[in-house]
Structures are given as C-alpha cells and as structure tokens.
C-alpha cells in the first residue's frame, strides 16, 4: 500500500474507532508544517481531525490540558492516538480573527484589545514546567535561519553578525524580566472569535517560556496582514498599564524581539521556497521586512541595525530571484 493510502486508511480507522465513521470528512487549510487538518461533520455535530505524521502530539496535549484547566479557550480532546499522531478535537468554528477582520475591519481595535487582555491574563499564571525556555542564546540560534537562507538567496552576503548581536542585546535589554508563557505562533490565523466566550486557541504546541513582549509582537506585527500602527501602539500601552512593567525597557525588548522574530521569519519563508517548494510565503516578505526596519529604528538596536543595513531588501527583483530557484 502506498504511504499516502496507508495514512488515509489509518485516519479512517481512527475516526471509526472514535465513533465518527458516518461523518463527512472535509479538508481544512493547513499551515507551513506537515500537519493536516480535517473537519468531520456527522449526526453528533462537528469535530476537527488533526493529523501530525511526526507523532509529536505530546506537547499539544500537555498544553491543551494546562490551558483548559485555567479557563482558556483551547479545544477539548475528544479522542487521541498520540503515537500515531492523530487527534480528534472540539471544533471551535470558522471565525478566525483573520476572517473576522476581513469581514469587519472596524472591529480591529476591539479585537486587538481582547488579544492584549488575553496575554495580560495568561502572563499572570506561573509558567508550566514542561515548556522549554526561549532565552537569549536560543533566540540567537533561531535567527541563524536568516543568515543561513536569505542573504545568498537574495544575491548578497553577510548576516553572520546578527545572531551574536541578538544574544548580546537580549542580555542587555530583556534578560532581567521573569519569563512568561508564550504560545509563540500567536496571531490572527491561530485565534478564534467566539463573542463573549474566551478567545479560541489553536496551534500552541510550540509554547515556550520567554519575555512577555514576544506574543504581543507576534500578534501586532503579523506577517499575513497589516495592523494599524496606532492599534499596535495602543495595545502596547494597554499591556504596560495592566502589568506595570518598565515602559522604556519593555519597548526596547519589544523592538528587539520584533526584529529577531521577523528576521527569522524571512529565513523561514526563504527556506520554504527553496527547500520545500512553497513560494506563496514570499508575498509576505515586504511586509515582514517593513517590521524589521521599524524595529531596528529603536536607538537601543543600533548595532543590529548596522549589521542588517548591508543586506538586500526584498524588493520585486529579489523576490523574483528567490522564486525562480523554488524547489519543485
């Protein structure tokens, strides 16, 4: 039996064993990973089938339990075969914040206020002991993806100074703040609007312990859509008012984490094209580069700004150069 046919049979057996044999199976949009998602529609309602061929369901299950125990909007687990990488979870609906914002842009201030308040609440809880730290050395290691993939693909050289500078600046600007729980891939494609109910949460299996600015910058500097800079500024002010953190140091750390995160995303998007044959993410590069430049304008990041300044920006010619080398 071909590998894909074998996996289809495995999914069907799992679904039948969970009592959903009569359900219609509809594919849902996936993400940049190998995970696949399906909606099951049957007499008992609807549910979402998560298929992770790596079998790495443990972090998702642990984080789901932690979030639900504290009243956050993670989906209930209906059935599981963690070793096979198959989970059946509660269907939280289709109202991703991204879709709600497309339908009704006027809701943006209220939606991002809710997102900010969610983070304030989340950060009041002690960090669970099963998540890994995302500290200065780890942030530096991760941003190495940028130097590994983007400069050469864009027709330039350099980038090797960026990772050491990120580690040094994190020690200077951010290491004194106790880490909080970060859901990490925290943006409008992974949050669901449910009216007065808590925000629905998905794709949090990569949660870490890190500086409290990390998820805020993830939500407000979204690679896939523009967020009004006035809303971004208001949400930072709202978070600071609720947490009473030092405003100047928080804003400097926010800029650093924004620069690190967006440079890493540039590397990931380049790799997705060149290695994995997924060129569609290249369309987001100009927006992401704009975030990089905005963050590097912070005076505390001058050394990092100097290291990035010599590299090619992702203009139309650079993006086309990368697209032409896309794996097929």
From TrEMBL:
Matching InterPro entries: Aminoglycoside_PTrfase, Kinase-like_dom_sf
Domain Aminoglycoside phosphotransferase: residue ranges: 25-242
Descriptive protein name: Phosphotransferase
């Amino acid at each position: 039996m071909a590998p894909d046919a074998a996996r289809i049979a495995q999914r069907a057996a799992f679904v039948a064993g969970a009592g959903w044999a009569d359900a219609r199976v509809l594919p849902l949009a996936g993400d940049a990973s190998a995970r696949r998602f399906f909606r099951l529609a049957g007499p008992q309602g609807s549910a979402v089938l998560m298929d992770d061929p790596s079998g790495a369901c443990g972090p998702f299950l642990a984080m789901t339990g932690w979030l639900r125990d504290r009243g956050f909007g993670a989906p209930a687990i209906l059935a599981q075969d963690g070793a096979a990488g198959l989970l059946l979870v509660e269907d939280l609906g289709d109202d991703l914040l991204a879709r709600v914002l497309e339908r009704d842009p006027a809701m943006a201030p209220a939606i991002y206020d809710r997102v900010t308040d969610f983070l304030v609440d989340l950060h009041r809880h002690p960090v669970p002991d099963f998540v890994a730290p995302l500290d200065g050395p780890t942030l530096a290691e991760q941003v190495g993806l940028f130097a590994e993939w983007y400069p050469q693909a864009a027709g330039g050289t350099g980038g090797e100074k960026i990772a050491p500078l990120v580690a040094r600046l994190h020690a200077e600007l951010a290491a004194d703040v106790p880490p909080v729980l970060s859901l990490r891939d925290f943006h409008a494609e992974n949050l669901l609007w449910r009216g007065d109910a808590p925000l629905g949460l998905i794709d949090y299996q990569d949660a870490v312990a890190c500086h409290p600015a990390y998820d805020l910058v993830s939500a407000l500097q979204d690679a896939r859509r523009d967020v009004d800079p006035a809303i971004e500024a208001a949400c930072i002010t709202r978070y600071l008012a609720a947490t009473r953190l030092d405003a100047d140091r928080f804003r400097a750390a926010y800029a650093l984490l924004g620069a690190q995160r967006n440079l890493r995303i540039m590397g990931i998007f380049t790799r997705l094209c060149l290695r994995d044959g997924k060129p569609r993410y290249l369309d987001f590069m100009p927006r992401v580069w704009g975030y990089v430049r905005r963050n590097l304008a912070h005076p505390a990041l001058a050394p990092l700004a100097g290291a990035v300044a010599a590299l090619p920006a992702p203009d139309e010619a650079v993006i086309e150069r990368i697209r032409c080398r896309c794996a097929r």
